[in-house]
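Possible race condition, two jobs.
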Amino acid sequence: MEQEELTLLVKRHAINQIGFDLIGIADANDSQFQHAPPGHKPNEYLIGAKSVVVGGREVLEEILATTPSSMYGKHYDQINEWLNQSADLLSRFLRRQGFKAMWFPESDDYNYYREERLAGMKEYSPSFSNISAAVAAGLGVRGKVGVVLTPQYGPRQRWVSIITTTPLKADAKYEGELCLENIEPGSCGDKCIEICRTKQSGALRAWPDEGGVDMFRCNWGNLKSKGLSCGMCIKACPIGKH
């Protein structure tokens, strides 16, 4: 099967059969992955890796509007579980085509953050960066605090990644800027940073100079102690709202 035909087959299956809202493909050797710590690059996880398939699932604005709430917490957990199950299905589909594939969860377990903190790490290092993968796959660009913004949903989606030996055609990088504050400073007023500073933990800083998202603060802030998921930064962002 030719590369373009195989790529179309995988994308159609991911969207039409599994139900991903967004799907993109990156070259496993894309420069976005070169910033990963030793052992965390695609071809270090899977020998012979050629592609990284990235799938996204929309966070529903109507439920996000209620955050912080148990309703949004359930929605957040449901999206995460759906992404994990769907990545497993797509990985198995790729394996049935005769290739190797392995998937990474939408995020590491919160205990993983805690253990890194206890080990003295100043910055969180994920098992695999879905953010870098999404940018490499042409699905969007990093915004003010480093999270991915897409033209379809702004920051309101979650990601999962699949590393595979399947020789797929990589998508072109997204051209242009989406973040209003990056396009014209003062136009947005840093809504994401301000809402986090006043309502949650002050986990957000300008990226990349100030480090972006402090995952230790984000995941172990006041709302987490109450059993709630936050999401107020993506709720505040005006990009991609319908």
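Job #2 (started ~2 s after job #1):
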Amino acid sequence: MHVPHLKRMTWIGFLAGLSVFVLLVGYYGIGEIAAALAVAGVGGLALICAAHVLPLVAEAIGWRFLFDPAERPRYRTLLWARWIGEAVDTLLPVAQVGGDLVRIRLFTRIGMSGTMVAASLVADRTLTVAALIGFILLGLVVLTSFVTGDGIALPVLLAVLLGMLLVGVFYLAQQRGLFGALARLFQTFGGSLSGKMLDGANVLDQEIRQVYARRKDVLLSVFWLSAAWLLGVLEVWLALWLLGYPVSLLEAILIESMVQGIRAAAFLIPGALGAQEGAFLIIGTLLALPADAALALALTRRVRELAFGIPGILAWQWFEARNQWGKERLGQAGAGRGGRETTLETL
């Protein structure tokens, strides 16, 4: 798919999602939803936001195992990059791939191999989706204990099976040199790539195979990425408790797993706007949550996304400006006597 077409689809998805979001809030009443949010209060919303640090840390740890053991960045550097990448994916119309591109750029700016970082991110995306499928399966098991009949469970199960098939195909394609094959296919259909770019695609394939060859590290990564999904349940459980609608951990697992599954399916919509709110409303209805409470829960998620996302975008821009400023000072002072580029040590 051409980039302009992808951008167009992303903007269409954003406008459609925004329309659904406005319709839902308007239909169920902004006053009732605001009243439900007011129960949690500013302190409660801050606590909900703080709970998100736990899955973010687990994701960073899981990602670290996918780097070469001799060149693994420090935890705080990975957490910093994870935070900024998530902010980009959540708030910008980048179809859930812009965050990874920004992470590659950040690490190359601090002196790491872009190919190695890209390989770690390809594996990270693959394993994250695999862990999500496992999480959705857990939610599906919980769903069958709350809902009779297969009206909802069967479509979810079919979607999970399709996801498993796609992840399996993607993994096998990586093992067989996916990016080198794509580069050659691009040239076959009239594209123009330099020899350096073709070699780079082949090197990326080799790096990815080396990541998967470290089976112990892959298993540890899957463990931490799975833990990240489970830790996200605490945010839902805490939010509903603060909103005055306490649920069990099993019910929180059901809500979070189904919402994350729908959010993943709506990857073309920036921030899954509208789709995420609809998911909270549907699953909340299954658990007999009032509509205003379900939408208030959805809005606490939006508050958290903004609370993390806006500072994350600003941190990214600050880093880029600082890096550029350092280059300019180096050019003026010469021979490294002035400013310097940000390095791993400065982070």
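Residues 3-346 form one domain.
Logs attached separately.
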